[in-house]
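Follow-up to my earlier ticket, as requested here are the two runs.
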Amino acid sequence: MAGASLIWSPWQSTNINNKGGYPFPYNSSICNNTFNFKRRFLSSSSSKLKHDHAVTDSSASSKLSPLHTHFSFSGCGCSWIQDNSMVLESNGLTSSKTCSALPAKTVDVSSVSDLFEFICSGPLVDKIGITPENVGQSIDKWLLYGSQLCRLFQLNELMLTIPQKARLYHYYIPVFVWCQDQIALHNSKFSDGDDVPPLVIGFSAPQGCGKTTLVFALDYLFKTTKMKSATISIDDFYLTAQGQAKLREGNPGNALLEYRGNAGSHDLPFSVETIEALAKLTKEGKLPSIQVLFLSSAYSGRGDRGDATTWPEVEGPLKVILFEGWMLGFKPLPAQVVKAVDPQLETVNKNLEEYYEAWDKYINAWVVIKIKDPSYVYRWRLQAEIAMRQAGKPGMSDDEVNDFVSRYLPAYKAYLPTLYAEGPSGSDPDRVLAIDIDEERNPILAN
């Protein structure tokens, strides 16, 4: 394989002739050999990849699995994997997601050239400033990232359905490439020898639209490319059960503050402490008790913060912090505007005035996932709860889903238009990636 510029991948078929003008390197030793499953990426412990960011030994990569994450699965959108179904497993107080897929209808993608054309047809390529030449020059990375994500979600990369293929190559990988560019831009502002704080990327998106799964995939790609990352969610910073009780008592009759979720139900000083501690993790070492494991099932579903001894450690040096939440970037509005949406929202709006200093000001770059109609959240949440019940897990009934989502819709109706028109609070427009998605959670081409 000396001199080869592409990695081995199932996308490479027999007798690919790349001399016809495809803008990625041609190598006869790769393109004219019969595909051998023993040489498939991640299948041999002796395989070495010549890649500046890639895992260089598959045996090292295997040590990364399983990856554990602390997010709540209830809002996770994985319908693209197979028939709206997913299998969720729990390991102690941390959870890992295992997704199984054996698609009935597959896509015939037999060569690198086919995949190149598919990547270039994606809706995000132009938006993130990638040209066909860029894709061609880095096709080996796209192949590697696709193989890694197939491994993460337990997909057969030779048998991808169209939704699976689009989700990986039109969505997750383009966003990852954009995140890498943002990290490079961030690092360029520091001199050699400086302690470079991790870049904080905010992911603002309505519940159920798949942002948690997106962040999960990105975190995995960062880990497999030897860039240490940390993921946090606004859900990590809910008030304790005692704090929630005080919030309810102080706002009797306000359904928007009866349960956790809206502005006012978060421990903002604790979130500041966490983010600032993570930002200082620029060298080797660990920070114990820095991420919160929020136990959403405690107190009959009202939730409570897990004991500090159960919180996972974060290892440095961190390169990036992925911070996700349904209301990140929301801006307070004039009182008359929010009262016209829902009078109960006036208190929430007042609470929101403190959130910029606690969250948004720490975020350097943004991914804003946009939806056309907030009512999509009903359907997405219902899908998630049905999947939970089918998997034998406790799930909300249809009526409970309606009640739950109704407590968030006023905020969506009030704040999403401003977020979409102006961007998040204090954000640099050049560092905001806005992604419009359809009702199936897939990116769509801009009009």
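Run two:
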Amino acid sequence: MSMQTGLIFHPYMKPGRTARQTFDWGVQSAIAADKAGFSSMMISEHASQRWENIPNPELIIAAAALQTETIKFAPMAHILPHQHPAKLAIMIGWLSQILEGRYFLGIGAGAYPQASYIHGIKGGEDTKFLNDMVRESLQIMEKIWKREPFFHEGKFWKAGYPEEERVEEGGDEQHMLADFSPWGGKPDIAVTGFSFNSPSMRLAGERGFKPVSIFSGLDALKSHWDTYSEAAVKAGYTPLRSNHAVSQTVFVADTDKEAKRLVMEGPIGYCFQRYLIPIWWRFGMMDGFIKDKGASAKDVDLEWLVDNVFIVGSPDTVAEKINTLFAKAGGWGTLQVEAHDYVDDPSPWFKSLELISREVAPKIKLPK
């Protein structure tokens, strides 16, 4: 069995793009990924970032589901500290019923303090505080999905599920409760992590969730698997590398030269120069890449990233790069390709997606 391909849509839209442009690009990307044979599309949720401007991923998911056939969708992730868990649980359940098996749930604590501040959380930089909110929110949502009576008064929220009145045959049905539990009873859940010894990877292992690594260097990627698998075994789960997904910047063209030119001169290069390179320095991600290559910080620029960190080239070159990384890190089941703003000319991007799915992925053996 070969590696699967997925899309992760943040979506890194150029400042100035309208909400409608972002929405339409999300739907177009879903249709293209579905036709190319991608297995999943994850859509981020951000309330504060101009470049990552989707506060409601479920709207794109619902619209795209009507125009696609097999691809599965996930909010990646709903930021649990920013929403009341009862409201979110009902919305998740309803949307998963609408998609009838083509939905899974991504959850997260949030990475941007500005977004937390908007939602009334002044301690947004306190990861422990936010992780506690994630756990309490998830506890409430899972209780609501069971549709059993309870009332929760916790540290962060109050919520409950009422006892449903019994109705005799032919009697008054006005008090019967709608069933908004997820399709199949409960959703599959995924969590993302990028830091060394990520607490999100620990949560994934403890709960049997799908681990999704934001690639930030070989050491961090290895630690993600070690943290996840150790927690999973302790909790009684069997960790499978085929269940692990890794997010990475990938672009494929007919030749290495053409692929590099399209990245350097196109939307990916534009985004990194103006947005992502400063963020990578801020969050410490660049340190891992520099260590992997034995480089110096002064060597790092866009071209260095294209040559040493991104997975860019012809189908054969990209397959070789992924297989090399598999050999060093142990492998994973799904490559989540980071999406970018190709609104002005989608053709190179859509061709890259087709080449990744049809000519690269079949050459990557799925780990056990």
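The only thing I checked on run two: The first strand starts at residue 4 and ends at 9. Let me know what else you need.
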